[in-house]
Design goal:
Radius of gyration: 20 Å
Number of strands: 12
Strand order of the largest sheet: 7-6-5-8-9-10
CATH topology of one domain: Rossmann fold
Number of helices: 10
Distance between the termini: 37 Å
Largest sheet: 6 strands, parallel
Helix content: 25-40%
Shape: globular
Strand content: 15-25%
Length: 303
Amino acid sequence: MKALNRLYSLSASSLRFHGKFFTASPARDASGMSLALPSCGTGTSTARPGRGPPRPWVRIHSPAVPTPVCIIGGTGALGFGLALRLGQAGTEVVIGSRDAGRAQEAAKRARDLVPDGSFTGLHNSEATPGAEIAILSVPFRSQSETLTNLKGALREGQLLLDTTVPLAAAVGGKATRTLGVWQGSAAQQAQEMVPDGVRVVSALHTVSASLLTELGHQLDEDVLVCGDRREDKARVAELVQRIPGLRTVDCGRLEMARIVEQLTPLLISINIRHKTRAGIKVTGLSGETGFGTVDRERPPAHP
């Protein structure tokens, strides 16, 4: 556990303070001061009525420090594929499972496939607490039970990246159909179940698990992201875009997940009919990453 705690000692965050925008803060000392010397850009903030003239703002760039990510259900097809790709990109990955032995076996397989990667296998309850972002990658039938079991492990301030799709296959139906969810979507159900202070972002519903595990395959598709806080979506976007070939698209609030989750059975139907492994690509967006509404020369506005 000491080694695991060291993995979680680095953090990446962004905040806006008195007209200054800080991104990807690396390790900090005991007083909370950053240990990095970032480079700066300058500009001017917008004047606000009653608050005096515009103040200059500084955009501070520091190298993004890949922080460990926990994948709950990382022994499954999608979770393991994400672990491989993130590990290949230099991110330290903690693979979680209901069975610690299976998690350790998956971590060993990942190390064999990505020798330069850093993989640890732990029980879900041990893998989750230290991660800033935990990816929930379990079948819909297991989502409720998994989140119930992790109520004591999830903590305030964490982001839960939910990849769940309510496929009818969870109850013996067709994978090209979905189940109705009272809350509106699997992601909204997750938000209702997690402890207070844990925020849910929905993404990664349209990326092929099999293509993720084919490390020689060059990905080229979009990842649709839904969440109620723009900062949370930006953090998820930074994580996802560590994987070459994936671009994130801001699709709005978490309630939009009820639409995005329906794209999974659509793609399954397309893949069956055309014998392919299709993904999603959105055209007409400005910006480099799909967060086209974010002005890259200025700090992103808060929602």
